[in-house]
From TrEMBL, chain A:
This is Proteasome subunit beta. Gene3D superfamilies: Glutamine Phosphoribosylpyrophosphate, subunit 1, domain 1 (3.60.20.10). Non-catalytic component of the proteasome. One of its GO terms (cellular component) is cytoplasm. It is found in: Cytoplasm; Nucleus. Keywords: Cytoplasm, Nucleus, Proteasome. Transmembrane segments: none annotated. It comes from Cerrena zonata. One of its GO terms (biological process) is proteolysis involved in protein catabolic process. It holds the Pfam family Proteasome.
UniProtKB/TrEMBL annotation, chain B:
Transmembrane segments: none annotated. It holds the Pfam family Proteasome. Its main location: cytoplasm. Gene3D superfamilies: Glutamine Phosphoribosylpyrophosphate, subunit 1, domain 1 (3.60.20.10). This is Proteasome subunit beta. One of its GO terms (biological process) is proteolysis involved in protein catabolic process. Keywords: Cytoplasm, Nucleus, Proteasome. It comes from the Eukaryota.
Length: 265, 252
C-alpha cells in the first residue's frame, strides 16, 4: 500500500521504489501538469497608476498620488484611489498595475483582520507591513509571476516615522523622500532639495505645499497623470486620507509654443 | 499579417534581476580583518537611497558584505543569519568562520539554476586567531584570500589592492623583504583611499562608507584608537571584537 496521498490515483510504478521507501519530498513528481500551458502569468501591467510621492516631515509622513488609472494612453478610470490605509498607523501608495494593487489591498486587509482576531492588542506598524509586503513581492518575483507594482509604505508608530519603497522585484530601500515612476525623475530632485536636512523642522503646511508643487510639476510633464490627487497623512492622530482635490494650473504660456497653440508658421 | 509581424505570438520575458551598484572590499591582516562597503543604492542612473547598508555583522568574529542585486542580497543575508541562529541554539556557540564560508557556498549552490545574483565577501577571524577573507561568486565558488574587491568598481579597486597588499609590480630593494601582513592603520588608509578613488571615477559609488573591523581575541585595539568615530558592536571586550567606522563619501 502506498501511504502517500499525493500518489493515490496515479499509476503505480513498481520498477521504481517498489517497497515505498522514499521519503515524501523525494517522491517522483507527477509527470507534467496538463494545465501548465493555460496558466498565465502577469507579463505586463494593463491598467496602471503613475507616480506616488512621499516625504517625511516634523510630525510624521505625507504621501500623494493622483486618482487616474490609465489603460495604455487612455485615461480609463479617473477616480481610482491609489492610497490605502493599513491598520491604524500605516498608509501604502501604489503605482503600476491597479488590479495587482487591489489584490494586495485585500491581502493586507485580511492580514489586519487576522491579527486583530488574536486579541493580543498588538498591531502591525509600518515596518511590519513593509517587511510583509516585500516578502510577498519577492516571493512572487521568484515564482516568475510578479505583482506589477512599485509601492511606497509610510507611517508612524510609537513616535517613530517610517518611509520605505518596495517593487515588483522585491527591491527595498528607505529614505526621507521617495517617489515612484516618473516621479523618481521629475519630482524626487525637487523633494530632495526641499526636504533633506529639514525632516524635523517641516510643518504640515510646508510639507503639503512641497507635495502640491511637485504634483503640479508632474501634471505638467507626465502625460499619464491627472490634476486630481489625494494626500495621505500619518501622524500621532493616525491616518488621514484627504478627499480628492484639484490642482490649479495655467496653460496660458503654452499658446505661444509651436505645436500646441495656434500655428504661426 | 502579410508582413509577418504576428507570425509568432509576442513573448516578453519578465526579468527577475536588477543591478543595484555599489562596491565592497575586504582585507585580512595577521590578527584582524577589515570589511567595507559604500552605502549608495542605485538602479540605472537613479540613486534610490544614500544609505542602504551592504555590510552586516553575523557573529562576534564574522562580517558579511553583499553586492549585486539588492533584493537577493537582503534575502540571502537574512537566511544566513537564520542558519547561524539555528546553529547557536543547537551547539551553544557561534559557527566558526570557515564553517560559515562553507555554509554560504552550499546555500549559493543550492540556487545554481536560479542564482542569487550576489557577490559575497566574508571577513573575520579564524579559529586559530588569524584574520581571514573568503570571497564567493554568485553560484558558490569560493576561496580564502588576503584581500578582495567586488561590485561596480571592482575593476578599479582590485588592481590597486594587488599593488598595495600583494606588492604586485613593486621591486623590493636588495636585502629587504615585504611584510606578509600590513598593520591596521595602513590597511584602513588603503580602504579609505580605495573608496574615495572609486567615488571619483565610478558613478555608482559614493554617499557613505562603512568599515567593519574585526579584532582577534586578546589583540589590543592598537591602531584603532586614533580613528575618530569608532563604534564597538560587541558587548564583550574579552573575546573577538567587532568595530564599525563610518565616513562620508562624495554625493555627486
Amino acid at each position: 500500500m502506498d501511504h502517500f496521498p499525493t500518489s493515490w490515483g496515479r499509476q503505480r510504478n513498481d520498477a521504481y521504489d517498489a517497497y515505498n521507501t522514499y521519503p515524501l519530498h523525494q517522491r517522483p513528481n507527477p509527470g507534467h501538469d496538463a494545465f501548465a500551458d493555460s496558466v498565465q502569468h502577469t507579463q505586463q501591467p494593463i491598467v496602471t497608476g503613475t507616480s506616488v510621492l512621499a516625504i517625511v516631515y516634523k510630525d510624521g509622513i505625507m504621501m500623494a498620488a493622483d486618482t487616474l488609472a490609465s489603460y495604455g494612453s487612455l485615461a480609463r478610470f479617473k477616480s481610482i484611489q491609489r492610497l490605502h490605509s493599513v491598520g491604524t498607523s500605516t498608509v501604502i501608495g501604489a503605482s503600476g498595475d491597479m488590479s495587482d494593487f487591489q489584490y494586495l489591498q485585500s491581502i493586507l486587509d485580511e492580514l489586519i483582520i487576522s491579527e486583530f482576531t488574536e486579541g493580543d492588542k498588538h498591531e502591525l506598524g509600518p515596518e511590519e507591513i513593509h517587511e510583509y509586503l516585500s516578502r510577498v513581492m519577492y516571493g512572487r518575483r521568484s515564482k516568475m509571476n510578479p505583482l506589477w507594482n512599485s509601492l511606497l509604505v509610510g507611517g508612524k508608530k510609537d513616535g517613530k516615522r517610517f518611509l520605505a519603497y518596495v517593487d515588483l522585484l522585491g527591491t527595498t530601500y528607505t529614505a526621507s523622500t521617495l517617489a515612484t515612476g516618473y516621479g523618481a525623475y521629475i519630482a524626487l530632485p525637487l523633494l530632495r532639495t526641499a526636504v533633506e536636512g529639514r525632516e524635523n523642522d517641516l510643518t504640515e503646511e510646508e510639507a503639503r505645499k512641497i507635495l502640491e508643487e511637485s504634483m503640479r510639476v508632474l501634471y505638467y510633464r507626465d502625460a499619464r497623470s491627472l490634476d486630481k490627487y489625494q494626500i495621505a497623512i500619518v501622524n500621532d492622530e493616525g491616518v488621514t486620507i484627504s478627499e480628492p482635490q484639484k490642482l490649479v494650473t495655467s496653460w496660458g504660456f503654452a499658446e505661444g509654443i509651436r505645436g500646441y497653440g495656434a500655428q504661426t508658421q | 499579417m502579410p508582413d509577418g509581424s504576428f507570425a509568432h505570438p509576442q513573448q516578453r520575458q519578465f526579468n527577475p534581476y536588477s543591478e543595484n551598484g555599489g562596491t565592497i572590499l575586504a582585507i585580512a591582516g595577521a590578527d584582524f580583518s577589515v570589511i567595507a562597503g559604500d552605502t549608495r543604492q542605485s538602479e540605472g542612473y537613479s540613486i534610490q537611497t544614500r544609505y542602504a547598508p551592504k555590510v552586516f555583522r553575523l557573529t562576534d568574529r564574522a562580517v558579511l558584505a553583499v553586492n549585486g542585486f539588492a533584493a537577493d542580497g537582503n534575502v540571502f543575508v537574512k537566511k544566513v543569519k537564520q542558519r547561524l541562529e539555528w546553529y547557536r541554539h543547537a551547539h551553544a556557540k557561534d559557527m566558526p568562520l570557515r564553517a560559515i564560508a562553507r555554509m554560504i557556498q552550499t546555500m549559493l549552490y543550492a540556487q545554481r539554476f536560479f542564482p542569487y545574483y550576489v557577490y559575497n565577501i566574508l571577513g573575520g577571524i579564524e579559529e586559530d586567531g588569524s584574520g581571514a577573507v573568503y570571497s564567493f561568486d554568485p553560484v558558490g565558488s569560493y576561496e580564502r584570500e588576503a584581500c578582495r574587491a567586488a561590485g561596480a568598481a571592482q575593476s578599479l579597486v582590485q588592481p590597486f589592492l594587488d599593488n598595495q597588499i600583494y606588492f604586485k609590480n613593486q621591486q623590493s630593494l636588495p636585502g629587504q623583504s615585504r611584510p606578509l601582513h600590513l598593520p591596521l592603520p595602513e590597511v584602513l588608509s588603503i580602504v579609505i583611499d580605495s573608496f574615495t578613488s572609486a567615488t571619483e571615477r565610478h558613478i555608482e559609488v559614493g554617499d557613505g562608507l562603512e568599515m567593519y573591523v574585526v579584532l582577534a581575541k586578546g589583540r589590543s585595539i592598537q591602531g584603532l584608537e586614533s580613528f575618530r568615530g569608532v563604534q564597538e558592536l560587541t558587548p564583550n571586550p574579552d573575546g573577538d571584537r567587532v568595530f564599525v567606522i563610518r565616513r562620508e563619501l562624495k554625493k555627486d
